[in-house]
Fold this protein.
Amino acid sequence: MRERTSQILRDYFKTAQIGDEESQKQAIIETAAKLMKSDIKTNVPTVTDQYPPAHSVSLGPALDYLPVSLRTMLTQMIVGTNKHEKVASIGHSIVQAVRPRAVVAPLQIALASQLHYLYKSRFIVDTLSTMGFCSSYAEVQRFQKNAANVVASDILGGPSPDMVVFAADNVDHNILTIDGKGTFHGMGIIAATTPALQKSHLVPRENISLLNVKEMASVDIIDYRFSNYARQHVKFETLQQLHDTAPAVDILWELSFCFHQQVANWQGMMHTIHSGSDHPGISSVAFLPMINMYPGDPTCILSTLTYVCNLAQKHNTAPVITFDQPLFWKASEVIHNAPDDSPLKEVVLMLGSFHTLMNLLGAIGTLMHGTGLASILEEIYGGNAVKHILTGKSVQRAIRGHLLLEKCLNGMLVSEIMDQDSEFADLVNECEEIYTTLLEGKQASRSDLSEKKVIVEQKLQERKRGLAERSRTSKLWLTYMKMVRVARMLILADRLGSWSRHLSAVGECLPIFGAAGHFNYLKSAYMYLQNMSNLETRNPEVFRKFQEGFHVIRRTDQCWAGLGADLV
């Protein structure tokens, strides 16, 4: 490098005194360009067999990737307070243009991959590549296939994670094509690891023709030959008592309509109160191979269960998998008909809590048909939206609408008691003070709230019994409030990761499913509770993990952030 730099400078000084000022300026610019080009060829290492690591796209390493001369020149030329990102991106473009076959600049391949992920447009990527802003579309495809080839052998990213929850459901792609061809309807599988495993893979840059991604990332299809008939004899046993009391802070929601201060909605209140509470941590979600078969086919379900069992055994963890109701029942039949020595007998089969909530919302809409509920909800939403709310398909709108109505009904009930009982009014004011202290993060107030919760619930129950005995209309809407409360407990159990409350909430759904005529969910939920009642004996380690809240998935580092695996 020193000899090359010296030669460039000698050539400059030989011609420096020749010509006018414009010629000398041009000579200086050409000399500077030659020096920077020499630095790029000398200081930027030649790497063609491996893609840049993930950390190299952050600002610090991206700037360090540039030679000092190039970085200095760009820093002097570019103005602005936040110019370092521009220095790095333009510098990587120059390095890639100087050595197109010898290096793969980190920001070039990173930008091309991001554009492909967001827009799926070959035209955009190749156009920007032609202008020198990113790598080509062919390079992106090569990178993706090499990355898939690396991840396929270690798809969960660790040897023995604390807890892995699998989830499988229908997946559709291109379902509305003009000629009906090119559609995809199959089985999709994910694996959620808690706490999250962050593992960075070094991706080699091999020729695509040498890769074997399809075979490595495929699920072996195992033909289902256990039984050609569904179970004709299903034994439903008497369930254990699953009643679990709601948390003390939930009573604040029922009283909040009579508070003097403004109060957030139920989910906002719970999120604020539980802020800072302990939880198992954020989960990382890995997408597993898809199966191009009808998901309800027993062969597809058997192949899914076998793949999950093999993957769980490889990582020394229990096979825990979540299905929605139709697949849950068929999977339970597959496991029931499997041989006694089959690994499928070790599978912990879970019923998706999100789909259970959807069915519960639909059951509430069915039972409340013709009661005026639809007219009330039409004060908030349009008529077409209300139809989807009452069927349980529009989940977010249904939850908001039901919570608003429940809050109004609770407000009417509490206000009436406060007008007749001054001691109860004082108790409501004390609960509001406790709510204020909880917002300030003082957890010591929870013990005081637990004592007052017992008294408040006694007063409310007495008033509800009196109203139910006096009026059938009152009894109807009190039943509605109870069903909405079950929905809240189902959400709360997932958000907080409370296993006992989850089982209790599913148990309280059973009579609602039966009354609404949702018999498929009734038998599946009953079978699910029956199986989970034996989990402590059958798999103590999984039971312990579930008690600690590992059965839900968290995408953010917050206590009130748990999600059912079927929702993720």
In short: The mean pLDDT is 88. The beta strands are 163-173, 184-194, 284-291, 320-323, 348-351, 553-554, 562-563.
